[in-house]
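COMPLEX REQUEST
Ligand: beta-D-glucopyranose
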Amino acid sequence: MKKDIRTIIKQMTLEEKAALCTGASPWTTTPVERLGVPEMIVSDGPHGVRRVADVEALILDSLPATCFPTASCLASTWDTGLLHRLGEALAKECIALNVDVLLGPGANMKRSPLGGRNFEYFSEDPFLAGELAAGLIDGVQSKGVGTSLKHFAANNQEFQRFSISAEVDERTLREIYLPAFEKAIKQAKPWTVMCAYNKLNGTYCSESHYLLVDILKNEWGFEGLVVSDWGAVHDRVASLRGGLDLEMPGPQDRRVKAVVEAVRSGELDEAVLDESVQRILHIVFKAKEVPKNGKFNIEEHHDLAHRIATEGMVLLRNNGILPLSDHQHIAVIGRSAEHAHFQGGGSSHINPTKVAVPFKELQARAGNAEVTYAEGYPSDNSFRQEMIDQAVSLAGAADVALLYIALPSFKESEGYDRQDLDLTEQQVALIKAVAKAQPNTVVVLNNGAPVAMSDWIDDVAAVLEAWMMGQAGGAAIADVLFGRVNPSGKLPETFPLKLSDTPAYINWPGGAGKVHYGEGLFIGYRYYDAKEMPVLFPFGHGLSYTTFAYSNAKVSAPTFKDVDGLTVTVDVTNTGRIAGKEIVQVYVHDQESDLVRPEKELKGFAKVELQPGETKTVSIELDFRAFAYYHPAYKQWVTENGKFDILIGASAADIRCRETVTLQSTLTLPCIIDKESTIKEWMADPCGRAVLEPLYRQIETQARKMFGGGDHGDGVAEAGMDAMEMMNDMPLVSVLMFQQSTLTMPADEMVDGLLRQVHDTNR
Ligand code: BGC
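STATUS: Structure written out below.
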């Protein structure tokens, strides 16, 4: 095929090449019929196939397809195998609906719980998000259908999403905002990557050579095509130069002409255009290897959506009321019991094949119990006391009240961010009033991201986070409430106590065209750990109807080389009376490092199913990257010799076992001592130290003399300070300037000479 593509490119006119790099319509690429190049059809994504009936039109009406749970719910499964199965099902629907590339998944970080599209993203943790994205991509592509990993990169808010510049330092970008993409790209090789709307450090992602060429294509070896988000291209020529292969949506005749003219005038090298043409042709032909026709099995896929939703439900709190049993009268309260809120608004909106109505599903499992219903809250934001009153009297007369509370779409959707973490005023008042009348009150939440609960959580008996759970989610809720399924989901993001506690709070959502990622590496649990701050529910939290004990934690070696990695094993026992699944999490803590690091970071996890009394040994591999951090001065991932703690836990706040290991770094880092290096940096670098050590004592003596007549034996000089504490953080050249009178040559020259020695030793 490669050879054919080269031949085709040779036969293409400049106009045909330029046209190929822009869509023919909102959802199709440009065919070149005379050369046998077909069109390729793309559709949203990510949790279902939104195949518009008419691909020539940019309208939202789409053909029926299975609406699977959204990413928040998917991520709560922590199950890469299940996401693989989901991917296979999505591919089958793509094949049946004539779709070549599915526009998803999204692997952006949940920087703030206010992000309007958080329901479409997996996690606040890059490792978890990367693993899940890779599983899904692999599943879809195993059936010969493409994916588009989006939105690359730093697309973490909706406010001014088409124009804002995410201002992110390099280390934060490498350690937090890029690794999920990196992992998914290296592991699962998505056919396409969708660039984000926003700018990154002043440059549109659609024009960023640094992102699209230096990192994505060259460093990570991405071989597919980069497609723009819909309408993300501003200057087509600049975007081609920046590595953006395909502009969507089309048609954009003026842009195509601009490309032709730019090549003719020499402004754009034709080789750059050819490279994009080659990448597009490669994917277009690959897409056509699988014929698109047939049907998908609606029931089978609904069942899969059901299964995934049950695995993604997170039981946040339970005083023992759940699973429900022997309740003769169940009061079901809340609009979302009748009108399931199972997906978010915007481009991911699916036209479902069918919908499991939560109330009906509950009734079907309730046996002989009487089940009554009150709406509880309206569909709009109005306050309706009479609805609360009605709910209260219903709840008071029952044995248990189930409150189905959905965050309305005017509060959460693609296109705008949330303004707060709150449910509506009516919903909060409803929960409080019902809980007062009925101690056995269970709250079932449908939302895409954390909501505040402090006002009422202590008044209710249980809370089930059911997320935007897909079209079959109503059945999954009923299964969990009645104990037909033992809940096993765990939170892929922290639930904060209040908005002002959140990491990005004072840097959100930015203004004047920029949003500063001032919290740096410290998003999600990394932030709450560093601040030792209490949260509502920690990252990784989720209850079960059984209990698990962890024991016998082991590491493969107490001392190991970074390149060899480490195997961590732990025994997990089901200590309860029913079967269940536990998600075991492995975090790594670096005891000492040159640059500040988060207290701990998730580097491995496993989900294990256990019968009552059963024990299984869980084994988790940790590789080089589990211990490394990105050093901006070296511009690479580095490991440092020293001790690391391996923390094995049931959540970020529930560490059950701890092992300490010693890492031996195999890296030989280039010397980065320069004229600005401080004395401490000279002494920390092996070459710097070798060169400076003979002079160090002399510098120290002079320093102490200057600050009041020398050392009095306690290390503190007369001036009341420790001179070397101050000097250590000054550049060598500045210290020597102060000591110029004691030197035989100008301080500058002396440092230049020392630097030459350092670089000679280093060679
Ligand atoms: C969204 C993308 C989506 C595209 C096509 C954009 O507005 O950001 O996620 O794939 O539209 O619908």
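REMARKS: The chain has a mean pLDDT of 95. The first helix runs from residue 2 to 11.
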